[in-house]
């Protein structure tokens, strides 16, 4: 039978401890203020009137604000159903994402474990024994009287009184680590989607370059046929035939390397979507044009960028966790109080268990204080301070890298679009020149050198245009990846304890 007075005293001690636990040692986390420019300097279409954006602090234990949905699922803007399906497959089956998801689950599990430290630990145990003492142990006692039985049932309660916030700081640190793991997952999704889109664009660009090389080879093969015909008719030379054949062979030599790059890119896309390298060959072999580029990409403001970039968010959460760990280490400067108790029943016969006279109980208040080992405690505090300083520098570096990444992506995207225009005109003019050179050669108004030079120029210009179009599409993907705004988080539906 549980003693009512004992339970009352235990409850009173617990309530008193809860009332006392109102402070937590160590610094409270405050988000560093990061002042950013009013606009991206390389955003040529941005308005100069955009106001300066300063990232300000938020409530200590509040989760980061959700990203706005501008430019959500950017790959759909390319209007390519196959690309959209490949991205969806990668988000669902990519193995790197599964690894990151496992890390996210692990962080949540550790957070659940840390939260349980706020509550009493209750254990129950039961023992039963049948013993016999030897004649030497009990001289003069009969054999029957040397036999004995003992039964014990008890419940133990242990509760650390978190007077100085060690447990609360530990929970705070674990929560921030869980947020960081979620942001790591977001960042990897951004990277995987960007890699799928970039690889797909590269594949279509390689196929276009392969088409250009094959088409030019056919034109040069026709030129060689004409030269051979003139030579057979006695109007040409072997020198002309050799030059035409050499140019054709040089063009044909480009084909195997391009075919190899096409195959390698197909394999990469298959593995990114969680499949064997050969899985997409049949589907990706039919040639399709490069995805259409958006007319303009609005990067928003640098302040928006820092609120969207998952790598910056992850770095900030790790700074938060490191700050909380300073409090965990600082709490060791103070005594640690543990409230404990035991309620049980002990008897020599099972029928006597839980009778009034078989009751056992124990209540205690334990104090653990390492004041004689203050040097080690202060060393741990210094190490925690150093960790926090390192995480602060890492956070500040992540901000600078995010701004640099976006500025670089903006300038590359803008310049490749201008390059496209020039190379498109160059490709069109070189094709016209090659056609006119063939006409002049057939009419006898030009020699073979002009034809071969015009065809070589055409091949170079058309390859350069195909390559520039590929880089333009890749730069658009890189810009979306740098902005990382509004990309959906594809975490399976589950209880997210990190948000509590």
Automatic annotation (TrEMBL):
Location in or out of the cell: Cell outer membrane
Keyword Iron-sulfur: no
Stretches for region Disordered: 123-149
Signal sequence segment: 1-17
Membrane topology: Lipid-anchor
Mitochondrion among keywords: no
Biased composition range(s): Polar residues: 123-134
Keywords: Lipoprotein, Membrane, Palmitate, Signal, Transmembrane, Transmembrane beta strand
Pfam families recorded: OEP
PANTHER family hit by this protein: OUTER MEMBRANE CATION EFFLUX PROTEIN, OUTER MEMBRANE PROTEIN-RELATED
Family: Belongs to the outer membrane factor (OMF) (TC 1.B.17) family.
Entry-linked NCBIfam families: outer_NodT
Protein name, as recorded: Efflux transporter outer membrane subunit
